[in-house]
Amino acid sequence: MKVIKIDKAKWASGVSSLQGTYKIIGPAVDGDAHNFKELAKGEEPDFNFLNTKLSPKSIVFPQSEKMLEYSVDENKEDHHIMKEVKKDYSPRAVVGIRPCDAKAINLVKMNFDTDDYKDPYWLKLYEATTFVGLACDKPCDSCFCTSTGCGPYNEEGLDILLKEDGASYVAKALTEKGETLLGAAGFSDAGDEAAFEAGKKDAEAKITSSVQTDKLKDFSTLDLYNADFWEDLSFACLNCGTCTFACPTCWCFDIQDEVKGKDGVRVRNWDSCMFPLFTMHTTGHNPRGTKEHRVRQRFMHKLKYFVDKYEKGIMCVGCGRCVNQCPVNIDIRKVCDVMNNHVPEPVK
Amino acid sequence: MENPYLPYPVRIDDIEVATEDKSLKTFKFVFLNEGDEEKFAYQAGQFAELSIPGVGEIPIGIASSPVEKGFVKFTVFKSGVVTTHLHQMKVGDVMGLRGPLGNWYPWDTLEGKNILIIGGGFAFTTLRSSIVYMLDPANRSKFGNIDVVYGARTPGMLLYKDELVEWEKRDDINMHLTIDTEAPNWDYNVGFTPTITEQKAPQADADTYAIVCGPPIMIRFTLPVLENLGYKNDRIILSLENRMKCGIGMCGRCNIGKELVCKDGPVFTLEDINLTPKEY
Amino acid sequence: MEAYTEKIREISERLLKDGTVEAVIGYRKGSVENSNEPCIVRSSEKINDLVWDSNCRINLANYLTNRKDKVAIIAKGCDSRNINTQIIENKIKRDQLFIIGVPCSGMTKKEDSSDLQENCKVCHHKNPVVYDELVAAEVEETKVDRYEDVKKIEAMGVEEKWEFFKDLLEPCTRCYACKNACPLCYCPTCFVDESKPQWVGKGMDPIDVRTYHFLRAYHCAGRCTDCGACESACPQGINMRHFTKKLEKECFDQFAWEAGLNSEERPPLDTFKLDDPQTFIK
């Protein structure tokens, strides 16, 4: 594992020199917050942020993405025959992704990359991307990553972990992809790994908020599902999609056909388990017809179904976006603790 | 990388009105490209996405049987946007077919067993597939007794009537057809499916499995009947339906607990279903 | 504010104890700064959950739609007007409600607790217009020009307007927090979810995003009380009140109408009168 020291004075030119080979995607000011976007030639990723308002999941999972295309013009020989949309899968690097968001992408990968099926759209974007993480020295009040199996210096899902260290950055190449990028940027001065150890300790100490998850796996699904706390936890919910769209680990999507003139595309759009239409049958029957059903589904999915299915912990990295952005202050930390501390009714 | 979202191009080869009220039609598709039929190798109980460019996709159980070659058949109820459009399409039209998807009736487990099939209304499609599969000369000896209880509102609402009549004549399958109320020229049972099941279905034993497919109301009243007949929950097999989009376990909407109806199902034992939230 | 909280708890406890209501809909203290969570209290053990401060932004009338039980609800001026609107539109019955009125001096912004929400700065109905009991004496109503911002946009040229609205809606993710926070948006199936026919695309095409916002605003015309729930709910900080307020102004100019001031009179776009102004027919 290579550790490289990058003088901040050489940082901008190094990143800029990558732009022949890579598209550079980085944090940038967007209204009153930061968000990830493709940076123009010479534009530096702006590291003066705590975390971005929207997660960078859209880099591998765009909110609206063309999948297939076709013509419905019967005069054309191949009318009504669907074809894959040609796309740009040239190399790109996301520079400045927080460790929580990188871990989230790793969790989501389990959904899109299975033994039975591979989602080519998600995977090709994922494979084209080099993930350059930025260690989190200034966590927000609502961060609880250290109790979700993640942390401000977590390396999962990253190709490089970057850390600010006074007048320089220290970069740890974690994969071959990461080494290639550092080489291409011309960064080669040896750095000291010790900077990470100290930084990690300090940063972790700053995270005071946490969730308890140890007992989630021991409950039966129906014990939690039928628990009496859901009305209270879900009362305020508006059933908007804010939490699901902000969440780096929410991956649900819808598939839609759109035709303009005779040219059609099949598109996938982010969807949300908060929306009634998500599960509505054609008959009008809705298996998750109430907001209580839908709120329960979201938290059960993240904190129970996922835990049981993959045995990799909860489907939450503790980024705190949903906590901060929920219009009615539904807080996953509270929900998680209520679930974890549930005392099932004794069997009669 | 194989693209599981890309449908095989198919042509509508035949359309048959399946019920007297014309709400169901059976569509026979042939594959446009050589080799696609082999790639679409399926088992009785699976489903596929019927994919109409410009309209959308709809998951439908496969009504043809793996032992029938050269085509695939689906019997489709006209209901939502895609099925309504499909009902207006003509022989010769080109569309897509994506699959086969989901699991199937557990044919390995069912080998050597007696099979009780209970179907109601238009949920008889994958059951037809299963019966044709079991009655195939190459397969019939693999199974013990086969009993079929199949009910519909009226004689004209029974699917695959010609085949039902043929099966009635055979001695290697016990047919128990029924309609809700008396009708002229009806020589079979009269009464709701659960009632006829109670009267005609074999008692349970360790070697008998029941496969149940039908509208929720039929299932609700049939399950207690099966319990009375001694069927254990792990001997009762059901096929579930939920709203689906991807059909491959990724889009996130069709789950019941951690099980995905599209990929881990649609076929579950009642024992498995009872461990999950009833969100179907 | 603490006196309000005390009074709210006192009234609520009395109502639950004497069986006047089955539950009280109010706010409880939030887990993050400048936030409260709407809640339902069913027993007196939970009475002390109820709080009142300047973070009670969400319009509680939103939680009344189609309720069957008898509840008490805490209502600011705007909430009370939306309760009237829900009564007019048969979403709840007046006799199902015990309205605990709260004279309101305005809610503050979540991101800056020293600054009042924009709608509160121009509020003309701080005091509840309908209530069963008030928690405190009425506050003085202020009269300011409610429509200064609308007039600014009206004065723009076509191009400038286009750019303004384009930029305004650019950050929208279609999470629908605005419509779901809105006490008027209770249609069983919102037009954005209709499939037969499908009125709008579901992706991020700007035309679809704008269609959603324009149509939603029009659907609220003459019903909107400018409670600001939509804006306060928006995680992207979009000021969609620019649309609803323009329509509110039109209703005021054309019909001298302010929504929800009583529970009898239907909104002007919901009725036809022979002497309706017809200046909009060009």
Describe the overall structure.
The complex is a heterotrimer of chains A (348), B (280) and C (282). By secondary structure, chain A is of the alpha/beta class. Chain A has two domains: 3-206, no CATH class; 216-340, no CATH class. Chain A is 30% helix and 20% strand. Chain A is built from eleven helices and eleven strands. In chain A, the strands form two sheets. A seven-stranded mixed beta sheet of chain A has the order 1-9-8-7-6-2-3, sandwiched between helices. A four-stranded antiparallel beta sheet of chain A has the order 5-4-11-10, with no helix packed on it. In chain A, a hairpin with a 2-residue loop joins strand 8 (160-165) and strand 9 (168-173). Chain A is globular, with a radius of gyration of 22 Å. Chain B has two domains: 8-101, Translation factors (Elongation Factor Tu (Ef-tu), domain 3), CATH 2.40.30; 107-239, 3-Layer(aba) Sandwich (Rossmann fold). Chain B has a seven-stranded mixed beta sheet, with helices on both faces. In chain B, helix 7 (216-228) links the parallel strand 11 and strand 12 (236-239). Chain C is α/β, with parallel strands linked by helices and 282 residues long. Chain C has helices spanning 2-17, 77-88, 118-121, 148-154, 158-169, 177-181, 206-219, 229-233, 241-255, and strands at residues 23-29, 36-41, 71-75, 97-101, 108-109, 112-116, 133-134. Chain C is globular and about 60 Å long. Chains in contact: A-B, A-C. Chains A and B meet through strand 4, strand 5, helix 3, helix 6 and strand 10 of A and strand 6 of B.
